[in-house]
Write a structure and sequence with these properties.
The protein is mostly beta strands and about 775 residues long. The chain is built from seven helices and 46 strands. The two termini are about 25 Å apart.
Length: about 775
Amino acid sequence: MKYNLAVILFFLTVCISAQQTKSVDYMDTPLSEAFADLERSFNIKLSFNSELVNNRFITLQLENAVLEDILYHIETKLFLKFKKESRRYYTVRILKKQLTDTQELDEIFIEEYITSGVKNNKDDTSISMSPENLGILPGLTEPDVLQSIQLIPGVQSPNETASDLFIRGGTPDQNLILWDGIKMYHTGHFFGTISAFNPYITDQITLYKSGTKAKYGDRISGVIDIKSENAIPGTTEGGFGFNMTHADAFLKTPLGKKAAILFSARRSITDAFNTETFRNLSKRVFQETKISNGNKIFEDDEVVTTNDLFYFTDFTLKAIVEPNANNKIELSSLYTKNKLDYGFLIEAFEEASDDQLDIVNQGLSFNWSHEHNDALTHDFNVYYSNFDLEYVGSNSISGELNDQLEKLNTINDFGLALNMDWDLSSKTSLGLGYQFSSNEVKYGLSFTEPESPEENFNESSSNINNTHAIYADYLYKIDNKWYLNTGLRANYFSILDKLFLEPRVQFSVNVTPDLKFKVSGERLHQAVSEVVEFNTQEFGLENQVWVLSDGDDIPILRSTQLTSGMVFNKNGWNLDFELYYKKIKGLTSITLGFDRMNDFFSVGKSDVFGMDVLIKKKIQNYRTWLGYTLINNDFLFNTINNGQEFPGNTDITHNFVWSHTYEWRHFNISLGWSIRTGIPYTKASGIENTPNGNVIVFEDTNAARLPNYHRLDLSTTYSFNFSKQDSWKGKLGFSLLNIYNRENILSRTYEIRQSTQNSEDELREINKSSLGLTPNLVFRVEF
């Protein structure tokens, strides 16, 4: 029936207007050559992942056929899907359909990295993820943009958050995170437990663990490039839904054939509904903070909550205009906000406290893509990013004190970039670009106590760094076998008045149709980073602030990374293996937050050696994959640990993940188990009396380790249609995190507290535990 309808529509189209035709005679022709022939003949552009055409051939003979007829026959033979995005542009993807041909089946396996919607790009070292096509993942009923990345070997989150990603020994502030070209400085909701990016308007996420292109700069660790949808839909599309933490809605609507508007919004529901999911998340987030402890002196103190407000929200708005086949204009905006207002009262002591925290990250970007001809294209991008963090904490005891602490951290980042890609021949291409950014970073801290004015202070700083960067990439590629990309980036930082060069190289060779070797190397620099701020440690949350490097106290971060590995695909088996070495210079103790206060400031470096391994197998509708990461991250600081090397703060030696997914009709289920080495910590041995009071006596820095971490996660979804026309679709989902309720210790610190038995000080061990058994439900409707 579908075939008959397609034929009828085809002949109706032919009758209405004459179309260009072509006779094709493809006999075992490589699919890449057939695509190139169609692009030349019909003046179209086909967009597809290079793995799609690798080792694929087409046999097709047609006389005087129009383009739609040719594409239809290719779809039928190779189980592909062509989607017309504009008058000239088409995207190509593989249909999710069981094949009987072994060769075709192998190609689908190559298309997937860990599950559907995740691809290991053939032409470089990046990994791409499409939330719309993303298969179910353990513990996730919805495709959280940042949480999903953590299942990829080499990406870890030691503190169980979505947004704090540690990539190959780097810290979260060392990652470059872009949303439609906007640099993001705060990427989480609810203190990192949920990513701040709505997955339902996200088109593609590209992750670089190494081997970054020269157009990426300003960070020394990973790159996460997030792009929202940029195609003009044929009809209005939308959806809405909710889970046990938030609700969301999105809409994509065309404004004629050449323009469209995309909108999305999310907001937490936790200030209206106190769900079990939110209670468990709150318990983990607020444990051992002022909010959970209530400044209790004695365990039986009665604490009355006076304010208890928390919510998060985000929304996006995007306009897309395609005036003609050679131009596309995108205007994107993003707004995220987290607000906390918590207050309590201990009536017995007439003690009152209030904490207010506001975090906003917003941005705007303009992007113009222009195709001069078949060989030359350019992209022009302008962006503005703003980050604001404001904290006000007050404490009062009747007749004794009335203090107030304020903290402000603001970033205004404006930039523009021009990128040009020029195909010199069928084997070579050249990329050239210029980037400018002006980064203004402000920090302010003030404390007032009318009863003790000698303790008052007010300090602030404001610096601007203007960065000029030029870069070039040269690509040499032969018949999907040899791939070489060499690049050079030159950065000028005005705050230091210095030029920094960053060479890059990526090389790969397909030794056989099933085996590929790859190697990459790069040097990177970073001028803005986060430091630990100790004045608000009593509050216990958001104690890091962004600052600019000054060349002395906060030096420029420098990173050199070398990577080598192999990829093997055969008979449904996929193996990806990489070894890497990374050296980072310019680390400071105030960026890493060591517990030893006498080591408050020290400059050092780290040496990271690691290995990432992924083994995946698909058997019909069942997938299983094993991910293993080995990392040895050593720190060296002249004034810490007697100048001897010691394990880094998040040195997770072994990290093992075993995941399973199964699809049956409209049901999907996923189960994942993870186990990893506990992170290092500095053990305290006691208390020492000094002329300045009692201090904690520590053993060797990071010489002890927490117990091993492990947990089991489950998720399942059921998809259904509200109508026979499939225009309204629904989804129900359920997940369980930490099924056997394992109490994992995430961190261990110490403090001196007055004993409840007597007036003497005692050493208290503070353990922060992981999330316990946590259920979640989701319901969604899309049309």
